[in-house]
Amino acid sequence: MECKLAVSMMHDYLDDDLPGQQQRELKEHLLSCTDCRVKFKELEQTDMLMFSLMHHNPVASEDLVDRIMNSIPKSKKERGFVTWIKRHPALTAASLFLVVMLMSTVTLGNSDRQLVVRGSDLDQVVIKGDTVIVPSGKVISGDLTVENGKTQVFGEVNGNVTVIDGSLYQASTAHISGQVKSIDQAVSWIWYKVTNMFSEVAYR
């Protein structure tokens, strides 16, 4: 069996539309062809992801769900739409990721702006109201991230300093060995999350 034929049969197999004889031929081909076996696993994972999303309780508003459902092609085009998704698992995964990020941005915009401080050496910082202070003479070993607040650095940070929806003040005595990032807009916030996710995956 040629790989092209095997790939076209995979979609019908996952939809339970493949006759028994062709199912057996496809299984035999998958046992002998590593590339097709990998492709089949990707399609199977996409299928399971789509099933999970369709049967999971929606976290978006009813209005958003209605708009998304109305934008999906109607019944006669539905099979072609599902087939396209199965043939492009990487694009589908990327699209789903962007949807999740956009939904989390909407949630972020609607939530209370609470101060969030993340880092590995937080006992060296002083928090006064919505202001996070790295005092003169103190050394932070590692990255420091502050969301929804003011950051004042008088001491030393041996890592990156990231301020999200806030302000940063660096005194003349301050020393930051890593990058200084200030993120104020939703698009920049999404890009920060995406690049951080890929960096974490790359270093695993």
Task: Summarize this structure as a short list of keywords or feature phrases.
204 residues, alpha/beta, 2 domains, four-stranded mixed β-sheet, 7 helices, elongated, Anti-sigma-W factor RsiW, Anti_sigma_zinc_sf, Znf_put
H/E topology pattern: HHHHHHEEEEEEEEEEEH
In total, the number of strands is 11
Average pLDDT metric = 76
Determine Rg (CA atoms, Å).
Answer: 25 Å
Structural class: alpha/beta
Task: Give the terminus-to-terminus CA distance.
Answer: 38 Å
Amount of beta strand: 15-25%
| Contiguous uncertain segments of 5+ residues | none
What characterizes the major β-sheet?
Answer: 4 strands, mixed
Oligomer: single chain
How many H/I helical runs?
7
Task: Choose one word for the global shape.
Answer: elongated
Notes on the structure:
Belongs to the zinc-associated anti-sigma factor (ZAS) superfamily. Anti-sigma-W factor family. The chain is of the alpha/beta class. The protein has 2 domains: 3-110, no CATH class; 116-202, no CATH class. Helix content is 53%, strand content 19%. The chain has helices spanning 3-14, 20-32, 34-54, 62-71, 75-87, 89-110, 186-202, and strands at 116-119, 126-128, 131-134, 139-141, 144-147, 150-153, 156-158, 161-164, 167-170, 175-176, 180-183. The strands form 3 sheets. A 4-stranded mixed β-sheet has the order 1-5-8-11, with helices on one face. A 4-stranded mixed β-sheet has the order 2-3-6-9, with no helix packed on it. It has a 3-stranded parallel β-sheet with strand order 4-7-10, with no helix packed on it. Helix 1 (3-14) crosses helix 2 (20-32) and helix 2 (20-32) crosses helix 3. The longest helix has 22 residues, at 89-110. The radius of gyration is 25 Å and the shape is elongated.
